Amino acid sequence: MAEGIKLLGRKSSANVQKVMWALEELGLDHEQIELGGQFGGLDTPEYKAMNPNSLVPTLQDGDFVLWESHAIVRYLAAKYGTGSLWPENIRARALADQWTGWTSARFQPAWIGVFVAVVRTSPASRSPETIAKLTADTHACFAIMDAQLAKTPFLAGAVLTYADIVAGVEMYRWTTMQVDRGSFPAVEAWHRRLLERPAFVAAVNIDYSDLVAR
C-alpha cells in the first residue's frame, strides 16, 4: 500500500498532469500541493532542496523524493503498476521506454512549441511562420504515432502503459487550441480510447485559460 504520497505542482501544468494521470490510473491516494505559476513557491529554499531546478512536478513517496515527470511516471508504474502500466515482458517494456524517450526528445518539444506560440503568446506577438513550422514538426510526430497506432491499440502494444501517459497528456490541449490539427485517424481513435478512461479525463481535461496570453 502507498503511504504518504505527495505531488507538488499546479494542476494546469502538462508535466504535472502526467503524474496526476498515473496516480489516478493506479488508484493511489495522495496529497497534491499547488505550486508554480500563479501559486509561486518554487524559489523557496525548502523547495529547491527537493528540486534544484525550481520546476514542477516533484513527488514525495514517504522519504523518497523524485523530480522529472517521466522519471516519476516510470517510478510509479514500476512500484505500483507491475502488469498494468509497467509491462512485465522485457520487450514490451523496452517498447514503452522507446516511446517515452521519443516523446521527450521529439514529440513534447514540438507540441509544446505550438502551445507556447499559439496560447502562451499574445495575439499581437504571434509569428505565423513559427507556428507553421512548429505545427509541421508536430504533424510529423503524429504521423509516426499514427503508423504505430494503426497496428496496436496503444503505443507499446495491446494495453495502456506509461508511454501512453507521457505522450497522451497533450491531447486535450491539441484538440482544443486553435491550430491546424491535420488528419491522423489512428491517433484520433487512440484519443477516443483514452477518453474512455476516467483517470485520463480527470487528470488531463483541465481548463488552461489561466495560461492564455492576453
Give the topology, please:
Layout: E1 5-8, H1 14-26, E2 31-33, H2 45-50, E3 58-61, E4 64-67, H3 69-80, H4 90-118, H5 128-149, H6 162-168, H7 171-176, H8 185-195, H9 198-204
Parallel strand pairs: 1-2
Antiparallel strand pairs: 1-3, 3-4
Helix content: 40-55%
Taking the sheet with the most strands, its summary is: 4 strands, mixed
Q: Overall pLDDT, averaged?
A: 97
Radius of gyration: 17 Å
Number of domains: 2
Describe this structure in words.
This protein has 214 residues and is an alpha+beta fold. The protein folds into two domains: 5-80, Glutaredoxin, CATH 3.40.30.10; 90-205, Glutathione S-transferase Yfyf (Class Pi), Chain A, domain 2, CATH 1.20.1050.10. It is 53% helix and 7% strand. The chain is built from nine helices and four strands, in the order βαβαββααααααα. It has helices at residues 14-26, 45-50, 69-80, 90-118, 128-149, 162-168, 171-176, 185-195, 198-204; strands at 5-8, 31-33, 58-61, 64-67. Helix 1 links the parallel strand 1 (5-8) and strand 2. The radius of gyration is 17 Å and the shape is globular. The model has no long low-confidence stretch (mean pLDDT 97).
